[in-house]
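pls design
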């Protein structure tokens, strides 16, 4: 199965079902548990046992975790391979997946108690439109939970493919949504890249051996992943990118 670029390397290193940064409570925490912890940091904000929509679910780690925690979750992602992989690894048949772009998902007004967006906002050219769509699918009092990187300085979006940090507040204000919390958790995610690079050094041969039959260019892919991770890590360390955890509430119902 040909998962999107870099994802098979990430998955063969972590076996986590996640393709995002980890949330480290201490530098001693291991990557696998930090990856699980990231989407769970705002679990207490989700309306009890209500349905959740996991937008850009990738290979379904978050979707499955939330279902196991008592929130029946639907994951949506446009990648055929990711959705097939997600269906194959889910721990419970209660976890549901659908292959579609969020923009093309049939509107289901007031169906969900929460919408999760873990490292997907960069794929939406207009953040306001994406949040409006999410809010439309929320019950009154429901929440949108966002974990993502945002750009601090005024860098043009065609150079840095992330939204400005201020964009979330502006979109929420425009839509009449309430920002319950917007917290920079950059320090908690920063150990992710060093730990990944360390795992890559340690298990490189095993990863190459395991993936080469399907991916003859896996060594080049690993080099490219290492370079991209380092660029991302440098941008975080020099303050161009911040990692935010944000909860936005739909006060009314649409
Ligand atoms: C960085 S990955 C994050 C995956 C997952 N949320 C996680 O945390 O493991 C971004 C995901 O967004 C998905 N994506 C891209 N464009 C999308 C869209 N228009 N609607 C929904 N998902 C999209 C990609 O296929 C990819 O799986």
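designed seq:
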């Amino acid at each position: 199965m040909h998962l999107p670029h870099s994802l098979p390397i990430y998955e063969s290193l972590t076996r986590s079902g996640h393709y995002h940064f980890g949330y480290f409570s201490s530098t001693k925490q291991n990557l696998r548990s930090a990856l699980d912890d990231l989407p769970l940091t705002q679990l207490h904000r989700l309306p009890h046992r209500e349905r959740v929509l996991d937008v850009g679910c990738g290979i379904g780690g978050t979707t499955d975790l939330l279902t196991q925690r008592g929130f029946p979750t639907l994951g949506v992602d446009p990648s055929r391979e990711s959705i097939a992989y997600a269906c194959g690894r889910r721990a419970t048949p209660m976890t549901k997946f659908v292959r579609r772009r969020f923009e093309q998902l049939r509107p289901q007004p007031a169906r969900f108690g929460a919408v999760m967006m873990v490292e997907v906002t960069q794929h939406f050219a207009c953040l306001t439109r994406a949040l409006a769509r999410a809010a439309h699918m929320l019950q009154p009092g429901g929440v949108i939970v966002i974990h993502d990187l945002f750009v601090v300085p005024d860098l043009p979006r065609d150079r840095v493919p992330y939204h400005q940090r201020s964009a979330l507040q502006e979109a929420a204000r425009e839509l009449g949504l309430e920002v319950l919390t917007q917290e920079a958790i950059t320090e908690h995610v920063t150990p992710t890249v060093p730990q990944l690079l360390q795992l890559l050094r340690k298990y490189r041969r095993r990863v190459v051996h395991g993936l080469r039959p399907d991916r003859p260019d896996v060594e080049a892919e690993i080099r490219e992943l290492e370079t991209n991770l380092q660029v991302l890590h440098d941008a975080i360390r020099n303050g161009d990118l911040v990692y935010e955890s944000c909860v936005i509430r739909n006060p009314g119902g649409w």
